[in-house]
Amino acid sequence: MKAYxxxxxxxxxPLRLGDMxxxxxxxxxxxxxxxxxxxxxxxxxxxxxxxKPILPYKPPFVLGHDLAGRVVSVGQGVRGFKPGDxxxxxxxxxxxxxxxxxxxxxxxDLALKPANLSMEEAASxxxxxxxxxxxxxxxxxxxxGQKVLIHAGSGGVGTLAIQVARHLGATVATTASATNAELVxxxxxxxxxxxxxxxxxxxLSGYDVVLNSLDGTALDKSLKxxxxxxxxxxxxxxxxPAFAKAQGLNIVLRLLLRGTSAGIRxxxxxxxxxYSFLFMHADGGQLSKLTSLLEAGTIKPVVDRVFPFERMNxxxxxxxxxxxxxxxxxxxx
Length: 333
Hints:
Blueprint (H helix, E strand, L loop, with lengths): L1 E5 L9 E4 L9 E10 L2 H8 L12 E2 L4 E8 L11 E4 L12 E5 L3 E3 L6 H5 L2 H14 L7 E4 L5 H12 L3 E6 L4 H7 L3 E4 L5 H4 L3 E6 L3 H10 E9 L6 H7 L3 H10 L1 H10 L2 E4 L6 H12 L7 E6 L3 H10 L5 E5 L2
Parallel strand pairs: 9-10, 9-12, 10-11, 12-13, 13-14, 15-16
Antiparallel strand pairs: 1-2, 1-4, 3-5, 3-7, 3-16, 5-6, 6-8
Helix pairs in contact: 3-4, 7-10
Keywords: Oxidoreductase
InterPro entries: ADH-like_N, ER, GroES-like_sf, NAD(P)-bd_dom_sf, Quin_OxRdtase/zeta-crystal_CS, YIM1/Zinc_Alcohol_DH_Fams
Protein name: NADP-dependent oxidoreductase
């Protein structure tokens, strides 16, 4: 099958279009013909080598964490899917590779595609949708009447996070450029902070949850907007000891991550705030809950641009450039 292959780690190396062996599904796996694949910052970070200590993929391998497609065949232990089903997924770590024509996916990572979405729209959802669910619902325990700050509201995570937070009944603040203010308001943001002209830490206070996807400066400032007992949840780091333990990392990496996160953990403790790092995990059950919200029209995908498969490297270059409103997607089939 055709696939885009990473031959070596490096600073933005191009992916090579080549042939890879046909995937053969195990007993608990589903073979999926990929119709569309979403792009994520995680793809770029893995490509550049930033995640080698945590996700030690050995080149050559196929990148890609989001897919929408059609079931070709199922393993003998699979019960919830059959050939012909339209599905979407974020394959689990160690089993990625959606920048390809086909992939074998664990059945527990898979969900039926929302009936009202195109393949391209569906492919934009899994990784960011699961990230949002795990931050706001699973860990943030966001409730009606609470206040949440979502950084980078016009990005892939931000556009969905605003909608899910609104659905949960929270008051939603977000940071965005003036150019994107109308977009984030249309998604449900109550307060929009122009990060170019305003300091969010001077404008906001008494918040219950902050979803951080920005740098260390924004992370530190986010402590100021949270009330005592609030939760600062970062998807951009630094990873904390709880994450290192959950990943089963060796003692050297555990000590390293303990050290890199020590500063923000100390500051959070002084502020009476809970800091945690979240690295999302695959979960077909949670994805099915998002399917219900998507089919009801409660949340909707935001796709900036769709590239043809043969322009995968152009899509990756656009990802590196930044500034997309929502997600970038590649049409594979």
